[in-house]
Fold each of these.
Amino acid sequence: MIVTGTGTGVGKTVVTAAVAALAHAAGQRVAVVKPAQTGVAPDEPGDLADVVRLAGPVATLELARYPDPLAPATAARRAGRPAITADEVVGAVRALDVDLVLVEGAGGLLVRFDDGGDTRPPQTLADVAAGLGAPVLLVASAGLGVLNTAALTAEALRSRGLELLGVVVGAFPDDDDLAARTNLDDLPTVTGAPLLGVLPAGLGASAPAGFLDAARCGLGPLLGGRWSAPSRA
């Protein structure tokens, strides 16, 4: 499964950890892959450390790391290091002997891994999904403006013949406003895919036991939980 977002800071890592935690608790062998970690020094914990802290002892694989908090292609160029390619990610995922692989991208679907070359365009997370034939889970922000970015992501997936499994709101605020509440109804409409869960803001600070319970309550059956979408008024 590919996990992408409508932007940065929308809760992709928490959603990835929640799906991983539920699968691990159900007895599945789980691996979480981060193709490119940016904005983190070599000796600092990255997103995968958060996944393990929240989900438990799942396997993890980080393929590249760059210090600047930028798109992977830009961060690699500035660091003077080789960029990761979608082909390398696909090869690494196929080599894993597990029941479920979650590939968490950086930012959104079309953020560039590299700058391309003379014979091919730049590669993105969409190319990883195509190479693996894997469904894509879209993590959306809660508030105003998300309907456009969610719709654009869904359109980009359809144009490539890729499956949008569904949408999860990664950090729903306690003090939600009208936009956040109505977006729960509108996200399935604009994406053409079901709403598969809503996780509360701040969940990433939970203890592991509490996190697993929150994952069960916040994700739907397709992702291993028991959440159900609200009925339309």
Amino acid sequence: MPEGLLCVKSATAGYGGVPIVHGVDITVAASGISLVVGPNGAGKSTFVKTVIGELPLISGQIVFDGTDVSKWSEEQRAAGGIGYVPQSRDVFPTLTVTENLEVGGYRLSGSECKKAIAEMFGRFPALERLRHRKARQLSGGERKMLAIARALMAQPKVLILDEPTAGLAPKIAHSVLEELVVELARIGRGILLIEQRVALASAIATHATVLVDGQVRYSATGDEFRAVPDVSALFFGPHAAATSGS
């Protein structure tokens, strides 16, 4: 893959010095959607925690926008432009939509925060109509929209989305991926997408990586991945380890 905004190189990480992911290489390009899939227990959550700085690297390197951030803290990575939307606890349920956005813009000055909120309402008109509603009163799709908008308040260059369609109805899940995520890539954000809905997510991916047992079992362009006749064989097939694309 070409150099991108975020380059994870031979990353090995785990808990208490015990590796869970081993030698993982993934690149996220500007305007690209890099999809990471794999069976339960594949190491996807550990990988995400490593990229955002919650877990330290045992070995390897993380380069963001040309700078080695391997030793940066989670706060430094967030401030530097790596945004993150977790699978759960992605908004503050007792705060209103506007208050959630204000929390997302806490690093901004008062005037900058107001401007950013106006931009979010312009990008997500549904949120403006709900601006005074508490997040706990939102539907699943509205809540995920708010979570993404809150992350965008910090103006990240790369946005990590950890299973954004989890718990959503199929139609809403399709809307989140085909509309929200695709639009974010279109305006220049690099997207690292962790997803369980493989068929749905692969339709928008520019690159796909399959993690199995903490290792990259398959890596290919989105087109190559979509051409794979049996994706389940990559997850569970006995010879899948030998399979890889570009």
Amino acid sequence: MEDFRLFISLIEGTNDLIHSITPKGGFEFVNRAWSETLGYDGNEVKDLELKNIIFPGQIKKHQGIIERVFRGESVSHVEITFMTKAGDLVYCEGNLSPHKENNKITAVHGFFNNITERRQTEKALAEAKERTDFFVDLMVHDITNIHQEIFSTFEILLLTPEFPGDLSAFVDEALTEMERASQLINNVRKITRLYTKQRDEQEIDLSEAISSAAEKVQKEFPDKELLMTTTLVSGQYSIMADEYLDDIFYSLLHNSMKYDKKDKVRVEIDVEAVQFTPFIRIQMKDQGPGISNEDKEEIFNQLTHRRESVMVLGLGLTLVKKIIETYGGYISIQDTVEGDHSKGANFTILLRYQQPGHNQMEEVE
């Protein structure tokens, strides 16, 4: 008798919703948390059936689960939506098990955890994400179209014989700013996709990715020359990556070309395997103005830091860090000449590579 009282005390003291269902679908027992959550008193419970408290769209599915339990099966991780007396929804998950007397199943016991607050939070986050995606898509689509119209207008002005030549410099500057704005929009779109997209990776030759990025950067700076030297050779290292791999090297080389004021911009790229690990170390050393020790701490986190010296580099480095993290890698900044940041920046990247004769995914696991 004492053990039975202790058992009842535990059931009544828990916040879980507990009920016992008869073969006819009525309630043999409900605990205090069940009554208080669903809003029914003891007399009302006597006249209730299971189908009266389940969200209509789930009745058939749940009745099928109940039938399985009456045949002797225990079912765990059951998700169900109850309805309160007032019509509110209560999201729960729990377990169902058969209750036997004299080797005969006489009832089904259900133990449910109320996860309504969690579901509401998940729903709110999903809705917020949908709104964010909508506004990003709207911005990318509409502002891109607006930019294109402005580009076309400026280009027509420059080709018009009557357009004053002394104003051409102002139009060229405006076009440059428009290009910056377009790049910003492009980076915002890529960052958004990186946070939401499913990974679709393939084996990509690292040398080809760097060479492709260097060619794109060189085309954007026709008045300067990118002098890139590297220890890397074609086919030496392959990376499991996607279409964003080029963006890593494009952003870093673009910054070197942009901020190094010399006509010939030198960038040295050293690549080596890190012994006893699945990583290669890539060091990209330029000879530009470098990055101060203060800015090294914040340079990849423009989404949270707003200091002007960091913001001047745009979202490019934030994008670089996010891409590398999706590949399971790491990036940091040192000085090209140790201890003197004014002699250039050394971006050090760790990336996982495909080792010959090994399955990279098995190694990661």
Amino acid sequence: MKTKLLLIGFITCLTTGFVLLDEQKEILLWPKGAPGSEGKTGIEKIRIAETGDHVVSNIHNPSITPYIPSPEKATGAAIIIAPGGGHRELWIDHEGYNVARFLSEKGVAAFVLKYRLSKEENSTYTIDSHELGDMKRAIRVVKNRAKEWGIDTARVGVMGFSAGGEVAALSAMRFDKGNPSATDIIDRENSRPAFQVLVYPGGSDRFEVAKNSPPLFLLGGYGDRADIAEGLAKVYIKYKQAGIPAELHIYSGAGHGFGLRQNNSGAVAGWPQRLTEWLGDSGFLKR
């Protein structure tokens, strides 16, 4: 009996070990502390919503969680994903991890971004400084480690949902060439995304077409609030008039926050496939 128990325990340890090896580990964007977060020591908060989603807040150490495709599937493309949550929290499952798993299965390296939150109670952060800064830093980190992950630095894009869509869009407007003389080698990388995917983004009235804006994939629901459902069409027209490739999908049976869930139904459930088709048509999935 004792031998049997030891054997069960050994098998359990092995199984647990495999599970742990399979877990994705976060990578801090600033291992020594993020600029603007000095002195903030509060731990991250996670609540479980009625839908079962994990909702994260109180973020002071921004990070990315990598989902790297297997070598036989890898295309060399990469996407940094910013979940939404009204700049107060992050709905990190259906607007983050679920999407990253799907993309990695399609050969796209995906990175779920935990960014600092400007509208959380008593927050000292801002969208344009800290949230955008976190996204730009994430782009630089991925490009800096591109060789390690089998990524083509010319095919690193951004993706955002709701408030995260605003952050992603801003990164596609306010990119820079990096600082070649920076002591931190990551800061030497340019922060321009190769493409942008905006899913029911907030703040679309702020979106302008930069001189060298990357191509754009827009996605939303007819039943969303007017500034988003109508804002998407206005953003598409801006890009069309500027001669920058853009694709727009507005689903008549959808509202806000559908993300990627197993229980999505109807036409909107097929949006991830439309995205991969666009990435392929745009040349980002060439091996």
